[in-house]
Each structure stands twice: as C-alpha cells, then as structure tokens.
Specification:
The relative contact order is 0.17. 30% of the residues lie in helices and 19% in strands. The longest helix is centred in the first third of the chain and has 18 residues, at 2-19. The protein has seven helices and eleven strands. It starts with a helix and ends with a strand. The model has no long low-confidence stretch (mean pLDDT 92). By secondary structure, the chain is of the alpha/beta class. The chain is globular, with a radius of gyration of 17 Å. Strands 3-2-1-6-9-10-11 form a seven-stranded mixed beta sheet, with helices on both faces.
Length: 241
Amino acid sequence: MAAVKTAKKELRRHIKKVLSDVTSTAAREQSQRVVKTLLSLPEYKAAKRISVYMSMPKGEVSTIDIVKDALASAKEVLIPYTHEVAQPVEGEPVSTMDMLALHSLEDYESLQSDRWGIPTPSRDSVAERVNCLGGHGTSSGHGTSEGNGGRTGLDLIVLPGMAFDTELRRLGHGKGYYDHFLTRICASMSRAGMTRRPFLVGLALTEQLLSRDEIVPTTSQDWQLDALIVGDGSLLRSASD
C-alpha cells in the first residue's frame, strides 16, 4: 500500500509538470473533440440523470459544453459539492463529496468559482438542491445512512483525473473523493433495488493518457472506468462492454 501511494504521488508530480506546458488553445481544441465524442455515446444520449465534474480553468478537459448540452436536452445535471462530515466515523474521510442538482442554465452560469477556479454551488443554495443519494442538501457522508425520502441514483458519471492508462485505470488528485462517492452511490442504488450501476466515463487530454507500456498504480479501493475519451477524440471502452 505504501509503495502504491508513493508511486501515485510521483506520477501526479510528473503529470502536473507535463500539463503545465499545455496551452489554453490546445486544451480548448482537445476539449471540443472530447465533447463531440461524448455527446455521440449511446450511454450519454440515453441517460436521464448525469453527474458532471466542474472543470478547472486549465490542465483538464473543459466540461462547460457538456453541461450546456445536457441541460438543453432536459437531462437532470448534478455537480460535485464537497463538505465536512458533521459526525466523522473513524476510518472514513472527514470531508466528502455529494452530487447536487443544477436548476437551470442560469443557475449554472451564476455559480461562483472556488479557490481552484472551479464553479461551485453557494452554501446558502445547497439545502434546496436535489442530492443524487436521495432528498435535498448534503448527506451525512457515511456509506450506510444515505437517502432521506427522495429518488436515488445516476445513469452516467463524467469523471476527471490526473492520469489514465489504456486499461481504463484512473489516477485522481489524491483526495479520494470520487472513489468514496462511487462506493456510496452504488450502495445507495443497490439498497433501492437497482441492479445496474452508473456508466463511468473519464475525460483526458492526450497528455494525461499514459503509453501502452505504462499503468496507473492502483489498489482494490480504486474504481475502473467503463470508457475513456481522449483529447484526439478517440474512445477507449472496457472489454466487458
């Protein structure tokens, strides 16, 4: 476990350096190709309820056009909101991530950027937003206490990452938010009697995809993607699909 943690840290450092050389123009052009491929996926077209990460100003694929298309297509769009857990459980994160619904395009455009430049719901708007784990507002953050009288589940999740490999392994930013969230949403859907889980698709600039002889170091707690769309517009799919 310690060796994997060290390897992840080194890979993040390397990718961060590589991404620092990617121009805004190059990232924008790659993002356009990625979005075009995503919007053509049958899983995206069929999805009624999706979550989409809010992109940083640089260093990753922009999701602005995905959000706009999804809202225009009458999909329910939910976005990340991180918060501290009111009553942390030993061995679990003290902060967690929920997916909260956008009300409209105007709502999306009114979001304010956090310290990383990521559009984020304001605290005073959170209580009124639908949570994909059920009900409104933030959850407890615990895997066994989600759902408070509302519909649970997602059809498709668009994930960010620092690096990806051709076997659809994903290296996150190191906080563990997505891996913890995926465990919670799948458990919530299972408790609701849903036999499927959300379709997981990652988005990557070409600089974030490792060569075929390289792999992302992972543990049993790391989730694998169903598909990955790369900045040249290409699509990688899980062999099980």
